[in-house]
Amino acid sequence: MKRITLIVGLVALAAAFAAPSAGAMGKPRIAALQVGLAAKGLYGGTIDGLWGPMTERAVRRLQRRARIAVDGVPGPRTRRALGALGRHPLGSRVLRPGNVGWDVSITQFMLAWHGFPSGTFDGGFGPRTERAARRFQRWARIGVDGRPGPVTFRALRGPLPRARISLSRPVGIGVTDRFGPRGRRFHTGLDFPVGWNTRVAAARSGRVVAASWTTGGYGRLVIVYHGYGMTSYYAHLRRILVGVGQRVWRGTTVGLVGSSGNSTGPHLHFELRRRGASLNPLPALR
Question: Could you tell me which residues come within 8 angstroms of residue 2 by beta carbon, excluding any fewer than 6 positions away?
């Protein structure tokens, strides 16, 4: 009977840590585990919320270091071995600047997937996380105070923002880096690895609302508003070929590919936003 109970428990645990479907958000609690393991120098992979061999090996190393049962299962004792980053379940407190913990890591991960990344996933509630929380609260039309509590957590458990429009590919090539976690940060768009001076086309008709050099690593950037609260971003351009207020059509050339801003080589960084929230453009591309 004990053997059956153990097997049932292990099956339930495996289901809880199962990977989501491709392109979906990983498990926030696994992301929090990975943040804690990375802080201990035991995990060097992507903070993606996906349970895999690298995460399991890191858990076993932590257990061995903490001299607890080495079974690769991140139970309560393993959580305690993470120290401050293993404490405070989500919802156990209202988050404020200076807080560190499991709940902060989960909040950072969920904010990023809802389109409001706060920089590095580190489990520390600093100014960038507070700003991301305020932006999300404003987007979700809930009280804006930058202090995530029950109402904010409930909103973060809701569905991720999705595109309400269809888009054409801005360049005729496949994607390399996709929307989602990248290392210990979050990539808010798609990268197209095209050469210098490749023409970049508007993905849909709309009006240009920005066309200039910008801060934040985008370099030369064009932003087109398409209605329905939707905007598309074309970043790292070498040259901009449209102006603010100009009406563009699907396929209109808005600029030429370059490597301006925070970029290591020529490519197009393409984003889609809905009322300011970054969302995955890939399902909208036709």
Answer: none
How would you class 141 by CB atoms within 10 Å of its CB: exposed for 0-12, middle for 13-18, buried for 19 or more? Answer: exposed
User: CATH says 24-156 is which class?
Assistant: mainly alpha
Structure tokens at 244: 């603010």
- pLDDT tens digits in sequence order for the chain, 286 residues long: 434 333 333 334 444 444 444 468 999 999 999 999 999 999 999 999 999 999 999 999 999 999 999 999 999 999 999 999 999 999 999 999 999 999 999 999 999 999 999 999 999 999 999 999 999 999 999 999 999 999 999 999 999 999 889 999 999 988 889 999 999 999 999 999 999 999 999 999 999 999 999 988 999 999 999 999 999 999 999 999 999 999 999 999 999 999 999 999 999 999 999 999 999 999 999 8
Which one, of 217, 227, 153, 215, lies nearest residue 191 by Cα?
217
Is the overall model pTM greater than 0.85, yes or no? yes
Give me the helices (H) in the chain, please.
2-16, 28-39, 53-66, 76-81, 102-113, 127-140, 150-156
User: What residues does each domain of the chain span?
Assistant: 24-156, 180-284
User: What type of residue is 10?
Assistant: L
Tell me how far apart the alpha carbons of residues 134 and 153 are, in angstroms, rounded to a whole number: 13
> Do the domains 180-284 and 24-156 match in fold?
no
Strand 199-201 with 277-279, pairing? unpaired
Q: Is the dihedral of CA 244, 276, 253, 180 positive or negative?
A: positive
Distance CA 256, CA 220 (A): 10
CB 94 within 8 A of CB 148: yes
Cβ atoms within 10 A of the Cβ of 145, count? 14
Q: Name the class of domain 180-284.
A: mainly beta
Give the pair of three-digit tokens for residue 54: 């690298």
Q: How many CB atoms lie within 10 A of CB 50?
A: 21
